Amino acid sequence: MSALLEVENLNAYYGKSHILQGVDFHVGEGEIVSLLGRNGVGRSTTIKAIMGDVRSHGSIRFKGREIAGLKPHQIARLGLGYVPENRDIFPGLTVRQNLLLGQKTARQTGRWSEADMFRIFPRLEERADTAAGVLSGGEQQMLTMCRTLMGDPDLVMIDEPTEGLAPKMVELVGRLLGEIAGRGISILLVEQKLTIALKISGRLYVMGHGRIVFAGTPAEFAANKQVRQEWLEV
Amino acid sequence: MLEIITFSTLNGVLYGMLLFMMASGLTLIFSMMGVLNFAHASFYMVGAYFGFEISRRVGFWPGFVVAPLLVGALGALVERYGLRRVHRFGHVAELLFTFGLAFVIEELVNMIWGKLPVDYRVPPSLDFVAFRLFDTTYPAYRMFMLATAVAIFAFLLIVLKRTRVGLIIQAALTHPNMVAMLGHDVPTVFMMVFGVGAALAGLAGVIAGPALVTQPAMAGLLGPILFVVIVVGGLGSLAGAFVASLLIGLIQTFAVAINVSLADMVGGDAASRFGELGHVTVAQIAPVLPYLLLVLVLILRPTGLFGNRET
Q1: Torsion of CA B144, B146, B150, B155, to 10 degrees
Q2: Which of A93, A97, A151 sits opposite B182 (nearest CB)?
Q3: CATH topology of domain B2-300
């Protein structure tokens, strides 16, 4: 499996604090990879650095091309999609308009259409012309994910998609992740909880204190009690 | 009385729409940068001078089209090579940059066209009486100004609400990073907004120049009123800018038409308690009214009429 995204020795700072201290990992084509770890260990910063939203140094190659130093919109246009943790929907725009802005150009067609999104989440169709700001937290999460998919990314990086969601919503998110993977799209899933990550990931990384402290398959992870205790359990 | 009301309303709406042509750009630019652009009224002045210069060479109509485009290009350059570089040093630096720019532009205008007003006139094709009501006439040029301002308002509304680029602008005003990470070139969008904002101010200058006075002080005279408009309307709110523009336009034109003092209304004895103030007419205090409104709004509703952030 060739690597779609390769991150080597990624370092980032917030002021004087050294947030990422040489992060190394890769995501293969069509692969689902999870990045686990407690809050504050640098998982979100890693994704933001890849998207060019946080200044960093090190090497980030996507489809064999060095993307470190490119602007966020240029990185997105190469086929990297990002679903932020804080559900950054555009509250004043309608659900449909939010989806429209996921497309990079007016004429973009790709693996996903508005109809796909409405089929997976009928609730979004019911509220298509409602201002996105009045949706529930779960609905906003759906919208954020769908919006990114409308841009037809080859790799989606999803930050804590199940955070604060009701069990039924978590199930829906899981279904969408399955559908994404089914279309051959790679996923980098940032999670704190293990429920979905262990079920769908091909490989896992665990982060601690700004670096990768474990890399392996879900089975290897399950067998390694020490990693779980030291870096994940509260 | 009816004619005073009719003409004051017309003039008030006209003045308000002119204010809105400038305030709309200013308030959008504020939403983007997070600071007020002190040089915005300077683009209005540059528009008037460009309009004057082009009209005396090739006529009013070429100036009407070309001058705003030139001002828009100038605005885009200011954003691209000035503000964008200053941005990383923070809001105070940006504010000082626009403040300095306003002075630079005024001095340049002084150097090129002199301190005295220039002879920028209403074009002959529009120099006639539009209609007569009772004994008062209303000039066609004013109707033309009103029509232009209304057309621009409709254009802005359609672009912002009905087009894709309008959606991108609306989203980028509040969530620039997210919009960029979806693959949209936000810095270029901001440069365009700045350019279009400057062009609209320039257009306002082109059409207001012949009706008012085209002089180096025109930016300084208008700038403070513009700030009143966008603070009263609510910083960053386009709807607020529209309502506040009309409100201030109407207040100012009606106030100058009302030649009544406190003494006239409540009688000399009651008014004498206020001394000299009792005999000041509304018309005399008209220039102060917008600022009085500003103070009242800041005390009673600091977010402005439609805004959602504290001033």
Answers
A1: 50
A2: A151
A3: ABC transporter involved in vitamin B12 uptake, BtuC (1.10.3470)
